[in-house]
Amino acid sequence: MSTENGTCLPESDTGLNFEETKLTLGLPGESRGVVVKTGIKRGYLETVDLNLGRSVDLDGGDRKACDVNPENRVSGGAKPPATEAQVIGWPPVRGYRKNAMKSCRYVKVAVDGAPYLRKVDLEMYNSYQQLLASLEDMFSCFTIRNYLSERKIVDNVNGVEYVPTYEDKDGDWMLVGDVPWKMFVESCKRLRLMKSSEAIELAPRTPPNCSSTS
Amino acid sequence: MNYFPDEVLEHVFDFIASHRDRNSVSLVCKSWYRIEKFSRTKVFIGNCYAISPERLIARFPGIKSLTLKGKPHFADFNLVPHDWGGFVYPWIEALARCRVGLEELRLKRMVVSDESLELLSRSFPNFKALVLVSCEGFTTDGLAAVAANCRFLRELDLQENEIEDHRGQWLNCFSDSCTSLVSLNFACLKGEINLAALERLVARSPNLKSLRVNRAVPLETLQRLLMRAPQLADLGVGSYVHDPTSDAYRKLKDTMQNCTSIRSLSGFLEVAPRCLSTIYTICPNLTSMNLSYAPGISGAELIKLIQHCRKLQRIWILDCIGDKGLAIVASTCKELQELRVFPSDPYGVGNAAVTEEGLVAISAGCPKLHSLLYFCQQMTNAALITVANNCPNFTCFRLCILDPMKPDPVTSQPLDEGYGAIVQSCKRITRLSLSGLLTDQVFHYIGMYAKQVEMLSIAFAGDSDKSMLYVLNGCKKLRKLEIMNCPFGNVALLEDMGKYETMRSLWMSSCEITLGGCKTLAKKMPRLNVEIINENNQIEFNPEDRQKVEKMYLYRSLVGPRNDAPEFVWTL
């Protein structure tokens, strides 16, 4: 766990009553007729980066922004997505289960010349290298050759070279490897191992008639 | 005075399996203590920091089977930082060094490294069973070592672990002469495996009774595995995706007809709905079904499936089954003893598909029900009272209303009376988890009636310290108490400090206790380890006693503060 240099002042020192300023956004369906208990971790603001702490620091000096107001005492660790009202530790579902039920990113993989397509779950990989290694396993006659900075896949049997490409959310066919991995996972809709000879005809950001629509 | 020779007593003690009973036996007299000590082979240690490996080995030199638990339960819900502790290596190292004849190791919520798995595999020639539940820290390389070196391995059971998958050939590492496998579960592995190696392994394991594969095992392979192992009693399916008109599908249907021994079914990590009718042949014999990791099965198909399963005693499913589906479970599964309904949306912000209606239906239809875990949208007092009347035999009652402080939607009242009815009616409850809008009153009931409760989990409940005091005073058999987000402070914490020595552990997070209170407790009770988890340096270097403590975990220990605590854990 990394430790931060700055610390946040407790509520009493800042002179600002966070109880008053706390937006009581409850979780869906929750009755508002209840007195909000102190120290209860609920609602949007309490679980997300708060700039309130930084802006009312009375001590000057260089302070690294704290992630959360200690009076709200939200523990560190993984921060929930800012768009959802979540509480750390609630609902009490095992982390393993939460990960398993995440939406999977299955995409089709087509290889020019192969009779059928395969599917891979992009969530299962952490890097391009892992993905390409898996494609290599799947279409086992290929090996991956790192040719300079390009990733080429070669069919061992007939020496045909393939270039991994993908269709992104906009419908464009892109070369695999240009953008950071996570960005690729978000935007990839399907994969195609294109024959090198065809790929040469594909210039970057080409007009639609050059993009394959298979 | 013993009238029997030691061997006779030893033989008698052999019949005493429960570790609690054996603990009692060892208290009778010195010679019983001695005989029991040398004849004990199975030891259960609920908190790995309560005792040291050296003392364990000295106490039970003949140990063959060890169960260890590490992190506190709330670590499952991301409340405990990653490197908090719970390392198994020192245990394996000590057992190896002292040449203990270890045969079985069962671990829960512990950090297991590849190094420890390698050491394990090389140090115990008779090693037979490795069961890892909710553990982390290892990769498939560690599994490869176990496969390669444990020549008499019977059981390799990996449940819900975070395992780094190196996509190696760990399955290949089982030697050709390894034919002793009885149980193999690798459902939690995320990567590809060598399917041919798996088939060969299954083919040479005539005693294989339980096989749970991961998502990477496709339907065609499953069919071939079942052909080779028609004697399977427990099956975990990986991928169940195929075209119902294909050959592979028809072959599977035929093969399934021969699998008359299957009593337990799980998995379906990936499923194409129209394939499920092949399972109908094995459904009538099933006693246990876990489809809680099968989001690909719709509620309608779940219902169709369950209607074939009249003998089910244990069901784990997702809430997409709905209240209507639960009503069908209630009318079909009369033998039901344990039900777990998990949220399809585990981030919990959406809507759960079940309400109090489903639970009431189950309670009315399933008189043998005694264990429940139920994630739901809402609950009413009336429903809980009905459930309490219908099912007085609950031993484990865990209710999770996704909106943590939700009152009874019909009356807008807290759920005190409902839970009160549950504890009053179900005199044998040993495990209880509460949620919903709850005041001090419910704890008054719990203290009064829940006399057998051993583990209690509380969140977002109670109005004052009185709640915690009711529990500490009334629940005489309490062993584990875990509290999050409740307004309980030092008064409750310090009222009966001796109580904590009768318990395994206490967890309190996001409550009102202060550093000063924890320090007082630690000072007065030297046999407790009082640990503060100080993430993100929330507590400054020279903190004030009145500063509130975000996370405290205390437990009794015979060996004092642990020496492997990370810098963010302070033992007071």
TrEMBL record, chain A:
It comes from the Eukaryota. It is found in: Nucleus. It holds the Pfam family AUX_IAA. This is Auxin-responsive protein. PROSITE patterns: PB1. Homodimers and heterodimers. GO terms for cellular component: nucleus. Residues 104-196 form the PB1 domain. Keywords: Auxin signaling pathway, Nucleus, Repressor, Transcription, Transcription regulation. It comes from Cephalotus follicularis (Albany pitcher plant). Aux/IAA proteins are short-lived transcriptional factors that function as repressors of early auxin response genes at low auxin concentrations. Repression is thought to result from the interaction with auxin response factors (ARFs), proteins that bind to the auxin-responsive promoter element (AuxRE). Formation of heterodimers with ARF proteins may alter their ability to modulate early auxin response genes expression. Belongs to the Aux/IAA family. GO terms for biological process: auxin-activated signaling pathway; regulation of DNA-templated transcription.
UniProtKB/TrEMBL annotation, chain B:
It comes from the Eukaryota. SMART domains: FBOX, LRR_CC. It is found in: Nucleus. Gene3D superfamilies: 1.20.1280.50, Ribonuclease Inhibitor. Pfam families: F-box_5, LRR_6, Transp_inhibit. Residues 4-45 form the F-box domain. GO terms for molecular function: auxin binding. Its main location: nucleus. Keywords: Auxin signaling pathway, Developmental protein, Nucleus, Ubl conjugation pathway. GO terms for cellular component: nucleus; SCF ubiquitin ligase complex. GO terms for biological process: auxin-activated signaling pathway; pollen maturation; SCF-dependent proteasomal ubiquitin-dependent protein catabolic process. The keyword Nucleus applies. Pathway: Protein modification; protein ubiquitination. This is F-box-like domain-containing protein. The lineage of its organism: Eukaryota, Viridiplantae, Streptophyta, Embryophyta, Tracheophyta.
